[in-house]
Amino acid sequence: DIQMTQSPSSLSASVGNRVTITCQASQDISNYLNWYQQKPGKAPKLLIYDASNLETGVPSRFSGSGSGTDFSFTISSLQPEDIATYYCQQYDNLPFTFGPGTKVDIK
Amino acid sequence: EVQLVESGGGLVQPGGSLRLSCAASAFTFSSYWMSWVRQAPGKGLEWVANIKQDGSEKYYLDSVRGRFTISRDNTKNSLYLQIISLRAEDTAVYFCAREGASGSAIFDYWGQGTLVTVSS
Asked: FRET partner for A84 with CA separation of 20 to 30 A, picked from A42, A59, A100, B80?
């Protein structure tokens, strides 16, 4: 199985700050990497697909990059409504696997 | 608006069984792969199983194969997950999710989830 790691596991930043989360796959997954946002008690929401494509309707302050084994996710200007846990997910190989999540909070 | 609504969760004793359902609406259900993803309390997301548009292909997480059965009824726009021999570690919120139109596992729509609790 492909293992996904994320760092940091949690972070706290001020409103308006830039936030970056990294995701690493245990083997080359090309660009088969998605990012989701999950707020407490809610279902995950797709933000970025295929490493760098913004899902329709998602604010442009969210972005993703990377390929192969190393990926990053950025919120260019953190907003109060961005408080959530963010997960990366690979779909290069079955079983599809998720990273452990990064909890984002407001400082 | 695309909607996925799960049902069928509840409190079950170890060794028991359960059938989860997911009712889909506002899209052509028969055109999409569908998945089940679970989340144990306070934990991360874990993909469990998926099924092809016509039900001819099914894939499972190794740890659930043989105990979980995914199925679908395209005439009823519904997805199912039959679970037998339930274990404490199966306790989780179970989400159904639609996979992207290209057949890729891009989970673009999710239900609200149904909680399965395995306890005596």
From this structure: B80
